[in-house]
Specification:
The complex is a heterodimer of chains A (262) and B (223). With 262 residues, chain A is an all-alpha fold. Chain A has 13 helices and no strands. Chain A has one domain. The longest helix of chain A is centred in the middle third of the chain and has 31 residues. Chain B is globular and about 55 Å long. The chains are: A mainly alpha (262), B alpha/beta (223).
């Protein structure tokens, strides 16, 4: 019997392990490359600037309008994707720690979330530039950015914990997520705008089933003055409460089996 | 072809059954048994990794498991960074970590390699580093699996001395090994496991004698 809230509280109070191991993961990844940590900024720059410009032209939109839309959407999508994908095999990857008696599994998920957030924040300057140049930027939206991002991270956290447990038991989860996210990227309005999929249409319904759409929209819509549907607020509330309830149930029931699975 | 269609099956098995013992301050318990008797499973249970499906385990005091001293490293990180990494995994706080690095490098005789990547180490050096980190801090309870694998003779001697020191400082030691001499040197009590059950429990010398009898019976049964 392990209470999830108890482990999360302790992970927050003793951040040394997950913070340091996450940091090491990042710096060692680029250690041998010539450009080093510049690789943290180059991909978002290419993606937001390059792809953003190209797609704006392709759709006949002004790049100044479109690039911030794509930038915020892409970086939030990448955050959710890396957290969920990495969580799917984080427990087997840390099997040696777990079998030595490190039974606070939230530490390993925190490591993944911290890494994802670090990538997000290093890419933020690119985003800030595009937002400052944007004619759509809403001052009120900037104020809601911090709380809405917090809401998104809270959701990413329970998803990470739940997926880590499932991934420890079923290695298939990692494969499944890899396939789902390819579809998820198409299904989320990043390269296109939500107004292209109005409610009531088949593709509109599909888009609205996608939790990634709602989580990204909660952060992005107020920022860029795009319409935020009531459905999104209701969906995100249910997702947050339901997700945490389900995750604490699964954690209490199954966390103790993880050493047997990894 | 067979490998593709016949994956290994997962099944629930009782590995450890009906094992009851109490370790008090000053106890040095040696666990012996044939391969597959359940020694490592029992140690992992004591370390807190596996939870018993029935029964309970009560622990008082700080505890350190030395089951796997060379895993959990980051190959691309330097030795110094790996010392921090293992240190944080062992639950040390930031201030303690700073004090950990020098003594560990000193003991492992790897001071000049401190800024090199871990993957540049030989397996013996790796083992030395792992051992030095795992034994750097004194704990009340130590749970150990057969610990000296690689390493040259001079290091093994040094490791044995440190273990003796650590073991003397610890209040309770539980050790699994096939090394009779080591058991006699370190332990005062013994548990003989066979198929997950306790076959004998008591003084270490008696236990080792029982174990010899068990091994002899099996050897003659095979002939």
């Amino acid at each position: 019997m392990t209470a999830l809230s108890d482990h999360i509280r302790k992970s927050l109070r003793e951040p040394e392990f997950w913070a340091y191991s996450g940091w090491l993961d990042i710096v060692t990844k680029y250690r041998r490359s010539k450009l080093g940590l510049a690789w943290l900024v180059i991909p978002p720059l290419i993606y937001v600037g390059g792809v953003g410009y190209y797609f704006a032209r392709l759709q006949g939109m002004s790049p100044l309008h479109f690039i911030p839309h794509l930038g915020v959407g892409y970086l939030l999508f990448r955050l959710l994707m890396t957290v969920i994908m990495d969580s799917a095999n984080v427990l087997p990857a840390n099997a040696s720690f777990i079998l030595d008696g490190h039974s606070r599994l939230t530490d390993f998920v925190f490591r993944v979330v911290a890494k994802g957030l670090f990538y997000f924040f290093t890419a933020l300057p690119v985003l800030v530039v595009s937002l400052v140049l944007s004619p759509d930027i809403q001052i009120a939206g900037v104020a809601t950015f911090i709380p809405s991002l917090f809401l998104l991270v809270i959701n990413a956290l329970w998803m990470g914990i739940l997926i880590s447990l499932l991934g420890a038991r079923f290695p298939d989860i990692h494969e499944l997520m890899a396939s789902l996210f390819i579809f998820g990227f198409i299904l989320t309005p990043i390269l296109w705008t939500a107004s292209a999929a109005p409610a009531g249409t088949i593709h509109g319904t599909f888009m609205r089933l996608n939790p990634l759409y709602h989580l990204i929209e909660v952060v992005r819509a107020p920022l860029l003055g795009e319409p935020l549907e009531m459905t999104t607020l209701i969906y995100v509330s249910i997702l947050t409460v339901g997700g945490w309830l389900a995750t604490s149930y699964f954690y209490r029931r199954y966390a103790r089996f993880v050493p047997l699975w990894v | 072809m067979r490998a593709a269609v016949e994956p290994p099956r997962r099944e629930f098995r009782t590995i450890i059954d009906d094992v009851n013992f109490k370790a008090l301050e000053g106890d040095r318990i040696g666990i012996v048994g044939r391969n597959g008797a359940g020694k490592s499973t029992l140690l992992r249970m004591l370390a807190g990794a596996y939870e018993p499906t029935s029964g309970w385990l009560e622990v008082a005091g700080t505890k350190q498991a030395l089951l796997n001293i060379s895993l959990g490293f980051n190959n691309e990180a330097t030795l110094r960074e790996n010392i921090y990494l293992r240190g944080t995994a062992m639950g040390l706080r930031a201030a303690q970590l700073m004090e950990l690095v020098e003594p560990v490098l000193e003991f492992a005789e790897l001071r000049e390699k401190a800024g090199h990547r871990l993957k540049t180490l030989s397996s013996g050096q790796r083992m030395r580093l792992g051992f030095a980190i795992a034994t750097a801090v004194q704990h009340d309870i130590m749970v150990m699996d057969e610990w000296i694998g690689a390493g040259d003779a001079s290091f093994i001697k040094k490791a044995k001395e440190r273990m003796a020191g650590r073991v003397d400082g610890a209040k309770i030691v539980v050790l699994a090994s096939h090394n009779f001499q080591l058991m006699k040197d370190v332990c005062n009590k013994g548990i003989l496991l066979e198929r997950g059950r306790v076959m004998h429990m008591g003084d270490i010398h008696e236990t080792l004698k029982e174990y010899e009898v068990l091994l002899k019976n099996h050897a003659s049964a095979d002939v």
